[in-house]
C-alpha cells in the first residue's frame, strides 16, 4: 500500500491522506515499461537501489499514472532510521555521485527531494565524491571578500533571497551576553570582524549590561544547527571601548570596539570586512544589511538563519525630509555621525539587528565589500518612506585607527 497527500485525477493536491494498493513488479516487466516510455534508461533500472510498484489498472498509484511507480529502497529504509541498512552518509547533494537532476521533466519525482537526513540541505548517499581538501591558505585572506567561488558544494537555500547563504557574509558576528546568575548566553546584537581579534559594533548594544561577560561568535549561519559545512568559533571579550562622545540618549557617535582574548582563526566562513576611507561620502548605491534580528517591530521573532536585505543609501538631505514627516517633527536634524538607508516598505533592519554591518560593493571589485554603516536606530521597521539610521563608519576611521594603534594591532587588516 502507498499513502500520501499527492495529486488526484483532477491534478489537485489532496487535503487528506490517501492510500492505494499496489503490486511489486518484476524486474523484467518494469524494465520493459520504462525502456519504452523513458529512453534515458538504456540499461533499465538499477535494482540495487530501486524497485517498481504500481497497478495494472489506472488510478491505483501514488499519482494519476498507469505505469508502475518507482519506489526507492532508500525511501523504504528510512523506517530503519536514516537508511542505516544501506550504510549511507548524509552529505550535500553535490558530494554524492548518485544524485542527479538529469531526469527532471522525464520522470515524475513523487517526493520532490528525498531527505532522510536531520539537515534539510543534505541527502543520504552511498557513493560519495571525495573532494579536494580546501586548505585555509586557499581562502582569500584580504578584507571584504564574500564566498563567490561556492567552495561549500552548492547554495544551500536556493532562490530564497531573504536568507543569506552559508559564508555569504563571513564578517558578520553574534554578540552574546553570558549572564552569571542564569548561566545562559543571550543574543544581544550583531557586529563585524575588522581584525581577527577586534569587533566593530554599536555602543548602545553593550552600554547597559554589566552583570556578566561578553562572547563573540563568528562563522555562524543557522543558530539552531551544529553541523554546518564549517564550524563557528567563540571568543571571549577582554576589553570594551565606547566612543568617548557616545550619547546614550540621542545615540550620537553610537560606535564601540570589542577586543578579544584571542584572535579568531580565519576560514571560509570567518573573514575580515573592509572599512571605508575617512573621506568617503554617501552615494546612491544599493547596499546589504545582514543580521539575526526580529522580523517585525512589534511581536516579531528573532531569525535562526542569518537574514539579508538589499537597501539603497539615502542622501542626507532626502533622509532629513523623510524623517521630519515622522514623530521626530519638522525641526529634526540628522547628526553627522549618522547615514541613512532603506525607506522601502517591508525592507529594513529591525530589533536585534543593532550593531550589524551595512556593507556596500567596492567599485570594480566583484564580490568585495566595505562597511559603510552600523545598524543604529529607526522609526519602527520597514515603514514606507522612513529610512533606517546607521552609524557613519567613515567618520570614525581616524578614531578606530588610533585605538588599534594604541594596542599595537595591525590596521592594514581592514584597508583596501
Order of helices and strands: EEEHEEHEEEEEHEEEEEHEEEEH
Radius of gyration (CA) equals 27 Å
Give the tally of β-strands: 19
Arithmetic mean of pLDDT: 77
Low-pLDDT regions: 36-43, 70-85, 101-115, 132-137, 153-160
Q: Any idea what the shape is?
A: globular
What structural class do you assign from the helix and strand content?
mainly beta
The CA-CA distance between the termini, in Å, is 64 Å
- Helix tally equals 5
In terms of DSSP E residues, the strand content is: 25-35%
Main beta sheet: 6 strands, antiparallel, barrel
Roughly what percent helix? under 10%
Strand order of the largest sheet: 8-9-10-13-12-11
Report on the architecture of this protein.
By secondary structure, the protein is mostly beta strands. The chain is built from five helices and 19 strands. Strands 8-9-10-13-12-11 form a six-stranded antiparallel beta barrel. The longest helix is centred in the N-terminal third of the chain and has 11 residues. Keywords: Hydrolase, Protease. This is Serine protease-related. It comes from Holotrichia oblita (Chafer beetle).
Helix-strand blueprint:
Blueprint: E1 2-4, E2 18-20, E3 23-24, H1 27-37, E4 50-54, E5 69-72, H2 73-77, E6 89-92, E7 122-125, E8 172-179, E9 185-195, E10 198-201, H3 203-206, E11 212-218, E12 233-242, E13 256-260, E14 286-291, E15 307-314, H4 316-323, E16 338-342, E17 357-361, E18 369-377, E19 387-392, H5 397-406
